């Protein structure tokens, strides 16, 4: 089954309309969707390395636009939308402590969590709105964080594309398992930190 999903993703990634799916996933992941855009970005760059930079830009722009939606959810719909989302991801009970810390370190949290850790970016965007982080600082931090992340991924795949593809295809189960473990480790780190 994993092989068929991988093959389907690789086939989708080579199609012209795949960029729309990548943009939609990148946008939604920043506010409500649990799957990161890397799941499409990596195979799309592997399929056509010449598009690496435009795909990284697409991910950055749509991710920041999605981050603004997350910010607005936190700012204006906290009780109606954000609290159920935070409860779904297991953060509702610890949000008050997080908000206090967040107010002191907000820009750094956006920069680090948005680009360098497996911490779900949607939690950061909603928290930014809920705690009233300066929106200009939020947008700037989001651009830097998400741009850094997506351009690093694109650059690595651009540089090491064919060997990476061969490695992934030979060790698909191991790569998938490591990816899942990285996401779970991110959730565990958040729980331990709060």
From TrEMBL:
Annotated keywords: Membrane, Transmembrane, Transmembrane helix
TM annotation in the entry: 53-78, 105-125, 137-160, 172-193
Superkingdom, natural source: Bacteria
Name recorded for this polypeptide: Membrane protein YqaA, SNARE-associated domain
Pfam families: VTT_dom
Record-annotated VTT domain positions: 51-158
